[in-house]
Amino acid sequence: MRAKQSLDGNRGAMRSRIAGYAAAVGAGILWGTTGPLSTALYAEGAELTGVGFWRIAVATLLLLVVGLIRRVRLGVDRRGLLIVCLGGGAMVALFEVAYQYAIAGTGVAGAAALLYTAPLLVAVLAHLLLGERLTATRVSLAVLVLLGVVLTVQGGSGVAHLFESREAGLAAGVAGGLLAAVAYAGTTLVARWAVPRYGSARVLFLALTGGAITLALLLPAAGRTPVPPGTAGGWLYVLLLALGAVIGANVLFFSALKRIEAAPAAVGATVEPVVGTVLALVFFGQALSGSGWLGLFLVVTCVAAGYLFEARQATTADRSAAVS
After folding, report:
1. In which domain, by residue range, is 127 found?
2. In angstroms, rounded to a whole number, what is the distance separating the alpha carbons of residues 270 and 119?
3. How far apart are CA 106 and CA 95, in angstroms?
4. How far is Cα 2 from Cα 21, in angstroms, rounded to an integer?
5. Does residue 304 fall inside a structural domain?
6. What is the gyration radius of the CA atoms in the chain, in angstroms?
7. How far apart are the C-alpha atoms of 4 and 163, rounded to whole Å?
8. CB 106 within 8 A of CB 100
9. Is the CA virtual torsion 266, 206, 177, 175 positive or negative?
10. What's the rounded Cα separation, in Å, for the pair 242 and 236?
11. 179 lies in a domain?
12. According to the model, what pLDDT value does residue 173 have?
């Protein structure tokens, strides 16, 4: 009887881990639709700054409706409101605008590659602010990631001409991609602090709310008032972005984290730039050269290796602490 119970328990644990890996990959796939759907919105005449605003505004409204129907408590204390809604919201707002410029200026693959410098930024900031060591492995992976980013950005083609020249687009795209990576790293740090305290649903809702309010105030002041999509197709793309890349992807990723460790979940989600690149190639002709594909391969494999390296270090530290 005990042997059967043990076998059933092992099977259940295995199913849970498989479900976790599937959820992480699913999150990466949904995140990978961001670039192609945004590119489709550009073709509908949407402005770069408006795409980011409308997708998080619609996502926030959908989360609010679901929360009210299910009577989910969405409020937090004053400290959480300041850190998540204001701080996290500012990072979300920066990301939404910057990443649209990255997509338009460097293409879907280039934007995704630039975004994946975020783990490098987290490592550097952890070294400067928290005193964490920058090991030889970390430095080597960082150099390879940067090399991969350069190859990917330079190896792309078929980018929408939304700028005065290709050079102007690349400059704006690279700047946008790096700013998006900074914002993503900041959002990650806020989430690490807030999710254990308030739960993933409240943190996601408050960060999106803060981001939408920030953009609603700042964009008109900058002469970039968000204009609603003028076609049914445009609203469909916005709805797909809100349901998929914003809500669905985060729900799946948090579901993965409940079943498997953070490192393998992050590795599973690295399918994102590959999915985005393939979709952009199929639907918009944004092809990568051989060096571009090599660069994307370097970015994905080195970021995945970095996550696994961090997990191994954490495991070693935990074992050492247990022994002592």
Report:
1. 32-133+160-259
2. 12
3. 16
4. 29
5. no
6. 20
7. 65
8. no
9. negative
10. 10
11. yes
12. 92
CA 161 vs CA 14, 39, 106, 145, 168: distances in Å = 48, 11, 10, 27, 10
Structure tokens that stand for 265 in this block? 């979940």
The answer to whether residue 287 sits within a structural domain is: no
3-state SS class at 271: coil
Q: Where are the alpha helices (DSSP H) in the chain?
A: 2-31, 34-43, 48-70, 78-80, 89-115, 118-130, 136-154, 166-198, 200-221, 232-240, 249-259, 262-269, 272-284, 290-323
Please report the sign of the dihedral spanned by the C-alpha atoms of residue 310, residue 24, residue 276, residue 250. negative
- Pick the closest to residue 192 from 181, 207, 177 (CA basis): 207
Could you tell me if 48 and 101 are in contact, meaning their C-beta atoms sit under 8 angstroms apart? Answer: yes
Residue 69 DSSP SS3: helix
Domain count, the chain: 1
* CA angle, residues 169, 170, 176, in degrees to nearest 5: 90
pTM for the model stands at: 0.86
Q: 149-179: per-residue pLDDT in tens?
A: 999 998 876 665 678 787 888 899 999 999 9
8 Å CB contact between 157 and 287: yes
Task: Inform me whether the pLDDT recorded for 130 exceeds 70.
Answer: no
Q: Is the distance from CB of 281 to CB of 156 less than 8 angstroms?
A: no
* Assigned domain for 291 exists: no
In angstroms, rounded to a whole number, what is the distance separating the alpha carbons of residues 47 and 262? 36
C-beta contacts of 218-224 below 8 A and 24+ residues apart: 218/93, 219/49, 219/50, 219/53, 224/47, 224/49, 224/50
**Dist. CA 98–CA 218, nearest whole Å:** 14
